[in-house]
Amino acid sequence: MMRTWADFFPDVLPGVELGTPEPTVVHQLRRAAQEFCQRTRAWRTLLPPITTEEGDAIYNIPLPEHSALVRLEGGELQGYGPLALWRPGEGRGQYLLTQDTRTVALHRATAPGMSLVLDVTLKPSDMALGIDDMVFEQYSEVIARGGLARLRGDQLLRAQFISDCDSINVAVWRGRAAVRPRAQPYF
User: What is the Cα–Cα distance from 14 to 10, expressed in whole angstroms?
Assistant: First the structure.
């Protein structure tokens, strides 16, 4: 489910000049949401499974409508388990990568009929009519602040938006960490 850009208006419109065109407000909110998602990687999801075909190693990424890929976080192939993401250097075993954010390539072709599930971070596309419900519910004030900073050209508000994004980034990734960070160093 998506929330429209108009859902941000109660937080944004009181802070801009009367008569600011609605398309301008929507555009700046979209850009703020894109920047927010890139900085925080907060919109993370598992995509529907891709079924492998014989001889193919490159597949289209089934992105939700009006979304764009920020980062390929991981993947799992039925029968292989979790796949490594490609890193520079000599790769061993099965791994995956994306070079154009629209397709994913496996290092080697696999047997047909296997399921490939991708774990990805998303952002709204340039044509998005809104943002994911979960992202809106948790971070609407921060995104609205980013949109307002863009509309006003307010560098102080923009710095606060970036600071909020950095704090959220840390909180999101601590929540996904396998272990809790130490409170005190032990020597």
Answer: 7
